[in-house]
Specification:
Length: about 180
């Protein structure tokens, strides 16, 4: 028996199967983001992005919160790849869809191959907290605010990931007093 065969026989079949599955998932992530980048070439407006993400969300076969979260990640990637978001484009110095697709491809090449890691890599980093009295110099404007749909998607994704059911969430929402 050769040395490599001996090493191979000492590695358990479940470990090898797990490694193969991990490689499969990584390859699937690469294929997913490559497909999204390819599809970005056919998407031209913010409305196109919305329809694309809605169409994908309808057919994902995932829970509502998970599908909404994935659609939000796709939206971030597509906004850069199509040069359709002022804040993201300014941060990445993108003026055209070709430049946006180049930025997305560069992040994929750096190893950000999944929707989650790629969308996080493309987001504008939040400003560090400044020491002081807690008062900010200016309030965020509606133009700069995240959409309620994106905020809701994040909340639902986190709640479901942390083991809460939709019934738990509905019960919690019922206790909220929005008049404060």
């Amino acid at each position: 028996m050769s040395k490599s065969e001996n090493i191979q026989s000492n590695t358990s079949a479940p470990t090898l199967a797990g490694r193969n599955f991990g490689k499969f998932l990584k390859d699937k992530d690469k294929a997913t983001t490559a497909r999204l980048l390819e599809d970005a070439q056919k998407i031209h407006t913010v409305e196109d992005i919305k329809h694309y993400c809605d169409g994908a969300k309808e057919t994902m076969g995932k829970t509502e919160g998970s599908a909404t979260s994935m659609a939000s990640m796709m939206r971030t990637i597509l906004k850069v790849a199509t040069a359709n978001d002022d804040k993201l484009c300014t941060y990445h110095k993108v003026k055209t869809p070709a430049q946006g697709q180049k930025v997305v491809k560069a992040q994929i090449d750096k190893g950000f191959t999944g929707l989650d890691s790629l969308s996080k890599a493309l987001r504008v980093p939040s400003a560090p907290k400044v020491e002081g009295d807690g008062e900010s110099e200016s309030e965020p404007t509606a133009k700069d605010a995240k959409s309620l749909a994106d905020l809701w998607s994040t909340f639902m994704g986190e709640a479901l990931t942390n083991g809460h059911t939709k019934d738990d969430i509905a019960a919690f929402i019922a206790t909220l007093d929005l008049s404060k």
